[in-house]
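Same chain as my last thread, 397 residues:
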Amino acid sequence: MSDTSIEPHSFTSMRALVLCDAGQMELRDVPRPQAGARDVLVRVAAVGLCGTDIHIFAGHANYHTDARGRPVPLNEHPQILGHEISGVVEDVGSEVRDLRAGDRVVIDQGLNCVSTRRTPVCEYCATGDSHQCEFYREHGITGLPGGLADYVAVPAVNAVRIESDIEHAEAALTEPLGCIVHASDAVAARSVSARYKINAEEKERRVRAVLICGAGPAGLLFTQYLRNVLKFDGRLLVSEPNERKRALAESFGAEVIDPRAIDLMEAVAERTNGRRVEYLIEASGSGNSFTQIPGLIRKQATVLLYGHGYAGTDLSVINNMNFLEPALVSPVGASGGFDADGRSSVCRCALSLIADGHIKVAPFITHRYTSFGEVPVALASGHRAPDYVKGVLTIKR
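reply #2:
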């Protein structure tokens, strides 16, 4: 697949990787989007490749649904994937006053009541849960064109200016970090009634040990967020079969466990003096990991169900978990409140954490792609390489 067979700088068209069917992507010449009065046109600079992209590409998921919630087949409505986006403002609408051409930005890919100026706002947007907006749509996931293209047009409030000199590849990971910020906020909000809390004042209510299942990008972000942002100083365990990912987790302050070399439940019991963990973050999406949760957590622990998948898992495994009365939290996306200018407070927070060096993403960007033609291979099989942790496409022109 050649990136040069289509002219990338036309004023009416652009290059885009189009998912035509499961496992089938084509580089096409498609209409270039236009910025409406309240929009910005962004020249895409970098796009992170996410597990969600991999699932959609493989045909395991399709989040583009019709009014009745039925998936719209790719052969009826091909999709442009990519929702972890950074770029440069190319053009601004006539009513946009706080951005201008040349500004470097990250994209909040979700459209909600605030970004579309819907009045009155729905109950979810009114309470800061914008990812659950009744009218929510998402670039690169729910059918709206994503970042695997030369350009994307979004409401101006969905573009957050990059105030630092971080590279675009790192800035693109604002979105996955935003998901971790939102998930952690959701746990904190629900911990009011939970038995155990991170950094609780009462010693008997304090989380002493955390287990993160999976050290992919999410697990590595959670590790850093717990240590560097929440300042958790208890025992932080990470279970991960991949050697490179374990090494990264250890470098970020975790005690690592190879579940292939040792029984995970025994290892956790040994390292917690038999207490097991008060907080478990499931970030692997592995069905096998899910089945072990009852043997890993203390009674009335908090379990954050962050990973997705669990294919082939008999849901009767929930029975033994229910007997322990855990607080189950299952947040999705980078939801959160809005700043005074209408932009996502979670997105802005995540960008600041990366820019200020509190969260380091460069160490686990293991694969950097420079052409559209490399992406289908990465989504099909490249992500299974032993040394693969995170891939990012930097679009060259």
